[in-house]
Amino acid sequence: MMDMQNDTAGVIMSNLQAKWNVDVTAYSPMPAHANCPSRRTKVWWAERRGSQVRGNRIRPSHLPPDSAARAQRNFPRSTVFFPNNVACYHIMAAALDAVLAKYTASGQDTNDKLLGASFIVINKDETLYSNAAGRLDFPTEARPWELNTFTYVASLTKAITSTAVMQLVEQGKLRLDDDMRKIVPELGDMQILRGFDEDEKPILEDNITPITLRMLLTHTVGLGYDLMPELQKWSKSIGRTVTNLSGTLEGFKTPLFFVPGEGWYYGTATDWAGQALERVTGTSLGAYLAEHIFGPLGMKDTGFWPDKMPHVAERTAAFQIRGSDGSSLSPGSSPRNVGPNAIDSGGAGLWTTAQDYSIFLSALLNNTLVKKETVDEMFRPQLDERQARQFEKLTAEWGGSLAVEFELDMELNHGLVGCINMRDVPGKRKKGSLQWSGMCNSHWWLDPETGVAGVLLVQSQPHADPVVTRLYDDLERAVYGELLKRS
Fold first, then answer.
1. Cα–Cα distance, 469 to 134 (Å, whole number)
2. For strand 320-322 and strand 460-461, is the pairing parallel, antiparallel, or unpaired?
3. What are the residue numbers of the active site?
4. Which intervals hold domain Beta-lactamase-related (predicted)?
């Protein structure tokens, strides 16, 4: 058995050295006298400290129910869990470590680099891999980027808000196909923007079609973001000075692009779903999430207002902006100019860490927050043919920025929590996987067929930074190609 495992490890070492240019001498094998895992061993984990490797056997069935969440909080900075039938070597971590190191700056030069990144991959039982690389800020002596580095995740908020709303659907306090205008009257005031006349005045039409919760969660209601040229033109024509980036309820009040349900457009719909939650619960979205999601899961580093979370101040990442030439980084600032009357933005307001977000993804995999049948509905493709084609069309027109991990011809749909790829991605996730990304280029995905989920947190702009796109692609390919195929 030991000879066979040593042969396997040698092949893996050679592959890693050739494919990822990894210095495999930094990864020592387990000593010959160690108890190597058999096919019956459920999980081995190994941590890298310098060139030393230490292995211990963990039997998940013997751990308490909260062990998955606790593991993600307590395990070391670089930890990898190996599935059964894998030789007892720490080699697999090298591929993922090397990818993170390749894309993060070690000195002043940030050309085609990021300051830092954190990456976690899980399945329903344990953490498969977790690591961070780089630093929090531009000075080379800045603190290292860690798994608990605090970042603005923008639209990664949407999946959490949608899950909270589905808790209320389970309880019968909200219904997916009820008209939300009765609960959120502001939705009833929204008109449909049909274009502009010769004097550049907006042509608006009253909306008489119900706006359902399902439409809000799937972006089929017709709401956009203020960065869209049509809304910028509309704002200018009426002298509007607030936008959705102000974080105020007034900033979210915009016209619709079409009759609700007749298309797909990306915008503030999830913010309005969060407002529906607030109206029926009588509490703020932040307070609800703290009581029903963050608290039960132990997500202590997640919230809407960093100034009210002093414990994360020293580990908050600096904002970075990629130059127009697509090369080096320069210091940036928060993309949100939040005003004094800002609300808890259910679409783009949260700050969190990779550790915390992976706990949330674990809860989705384990049906912890809502029942399995609810999760199944959340993960089910919701768009009809017309809506799906509009989703694909806009994704292509926007340079693939809504789904940078796919080719532009990918068949797409949308669940109640995110985008769904309707075909397998060669070397990566299976069909039926869900994903979304945020304005500052953080990403999550969840692959129900494989039973794996992952989160990548960074803090760079503009959205769809090509460096992050390449990093994310390399990480996912390393996960599926170097780790999970051996499970």
1. 17
2. parallel
3. 155
4. 111-470
